[in-house]
Amino acid sequence: MRYKNLNRYVLFLAVLIISNVCRSQQHEVNGYVYDFNGKPLSEVIVYVKNNLNFITITDSIGFFKLSVNEQVFQSDTLVFSFMGYNTFSLPVRKSVEYNVINLKKSDILMQEVVVFRSKSMAGDFSTSSLKQLQIYTNPTSQADPLNAIQSLPISTNTLESATPMLRGSSGKLSRVFLNGVPVYYPTKGQQQNNTITSSSAFSTSLIKEEEIYASNPPIYYGNVSGGVIDMKLNNKLQNNKTLFLSMIGGGVAASLPFSKTRDDNFVDSYFNYTNLTPLKLVNNSMSNVNLYTSYDAGFHAQFKINQSVLSLYSSFSQEKGNYKSSVYSYNGEYKSNNLFNNNIINYNFPFGQNIIETNLSFSYLNNLMNYGNLDLDKKYYFIYGSMAYSRIFSNEIQIKLGWNVEYVDLNVDGTVPLYYYSYFPGTPSELLNLNSSFNKSEFFFFLKKRYRNFTSSIGTRLTYNKGKKLYFNYQLNLKYLSDNQRNKFLFSIGKYYSNDFMNEFYTYPVQNSFQCTFEYTYFTPRLQIQSALYKKHEEGYLDINYSSENRVDKQIWGAELMVRFQLSKNVSFQLSNLFLDSKIVNNNNEYRSYDDLNYFIKSLFSYDHPKNFSINVNFFLRPGTYYTPVINSVLNEDIDVYRPEYSNMMNQAQYNNYCTLNLNISKGFKNKLFSYSIFCSLNNILNRKNQSQVYYNKDYTTIFYDYFTPRILFIGCTIHFK
């Protein structure tokens, strides 16, 4: 019976999606845009004056193509808008090519152009973004979208893992979305601290860009109390037929059109296979990984009818791992077998100045794990549905309101240690059999108002958890953008609540955070400066080392500064540093957090010449993180295992300083049939032993360390077929 109401939600959303798909006659206008010197202008915004549903931008050679319906030809105007140039207008003419359109430079730079075509209003929030090409060329990402975030100053991830940690927030409070829909198992290889084994569950070939909200994320992202990463799927045909080969496996990706005349009806697909055995043999390293293999496959199909867009996404992945792992005084093999299936439907229906968005997803996760006397089989079923309505009343006022529902069903069977400190095989364990479910609903309202150079927005979200009280979320943003668009000031404040669906105690606890952020950005084509001050107060079960009886408060003060120089057309240099004053309060006592950092320096040098080669070098330097040492042990004679006794002063000890230097070199080649590129990455060039984890001998009298990734050579090639 518990599925009865849920089935109604699913049926209701499915009917809405299907019922709005319709057909009408389409016409196409196209042409080229140049300046008066005859230079093509890219990224010129081209739109229909009285209907913002019809909009596009010019490509690298100034070409644009716009499909419009029959009604537009009756009395409408085509507008060409580009920063620093006078706006230019022409009547929409049927079956006519606008051969050459010349824009004149303006004495006054244009104000910010407002386009309200989707839920993304990233410029009004504390946000960073990475395009697909930036993800591929990042020297530490291994072409993975979540690993690429680590090079940004907003990332405070002190692990070499793909788990997002943004501006000091616990990874449990941040959330990954795909086309606005939450992904419940976003990272693979979570047991390992290296950027090769630990990666996202996404194929970069399908990702157009990712938007990262490090603090004060938009209120319309549900069940979030930390940061947000929203990955946007391709919305245009990529003409992609790619073969990828490397020392860890290979893959294929292909894009096919549904129509020869349109590039917005297409399907993207991919298949990847990963096996770390060749990499281990060549590098004679990664001794803690005995075995790791994974299979990934998926597709994304988009159908555009009139201005409505239907998007279908499905992915499947299976990973098997066998790792050497140490917990307390036990050092053994951790075996895992994970299977994850994710299915998403997006439907956007614009009409006039309005747009209705509906989303539906179903996900399944089966997690098998074995470690000593721990043996678990966990099955998760996730269902998500949402609906939102947006309207632009003018260039000054926009609103967005909506609703979402989430449901999780969990089944756990197996055995767990009877004594938390004893994972030794043969020591006592107890049976665990658990069946639980949880659902929540959220309603939000968002209002945005522009006045001259200022943009203000306010948002609220009501969270209702079944069987629990109602939680009120709020958010206030204020942005100032100078006339020349070079200076941006942003102030944000908000209170957020969420539930941890993957909590290890299976109680779906409520977490909350208060966040306040001030940012300043200066931008010119050759120089970009980004700075931020922020405060966060988080509450929840933020670290798996704490028992289920103790909630932890985390107080965060942070400051960051990033400077990026475009030294020439092909050369850029980026340098950033951050300060993180991070404290935790446990049982009314205050201690430093494990990630209390006086500095975290990141630098990135890039040289990119299409005819020669590309080289990227980055460098990370920070203090070691903190941990709570064992100061004594007591023998449990019943099982012949020592129980550790920790220092009363939490996070009293510190690992050594972390330092790594990474290099990526690539070279492209072309011929009539295909183009290909060869790349080579060398991680941790200095082969520095960066301590990652501490463990002990049987009676805790001797201390040992695990280490992050040693020096690793990684070689591969990508072949693009024409």
Can you describe this structure?
The model is unreliable at 1-13, 15-25, 94-100, 106-120 and 544-549 (pLDDT under 50). A hairpin with a 6-residue loop joins strand 41 and strand 42 (703-707). It is globular, with a radius of gyration of 26 Å. It has two domains: 4-103, Sandwich (Immunoglobulin-like), CATH 2.60.40; 122-275 and 286-721, Beta Barrel (Maltoporin, Chain A). The termini are far apart. The strands form eight sheets. The protein has a 22-stranded antiparallel β-barrel. Strands 8-13-14-9-10 form a five-stranded mixed sheet. The protein has 722 residues and is mainly beta.
What brief labels describe this structure?
722 residues, mainly beta, Maltoporin, Chain A, 2 domains, 4 helices, 57% strand
Q: Name the CATH homologous superfamily of the largest domain.
A: TonB-dependent receptor, beta-barrel domain
The geometry reads as globular
Largest sheet: 22 strands, antiparallel, barrel
Number of strands: 43
Give the end-to-end Cα distance, rounded to a whole number of Å. 54 Å
What amount of the residues lies in strands?
over 45%
Q: Tell me the number of helical segments per DSSP (H or I, 4 or more residues long).
A: 4
CATH A-level architecture of the largest domain? Beta Barrel
Compute the number of structural domains.
2
CATH class of the largest domain: Mainly Beta
Rg is 26 Å
Mean pLDDT across the residues is 84
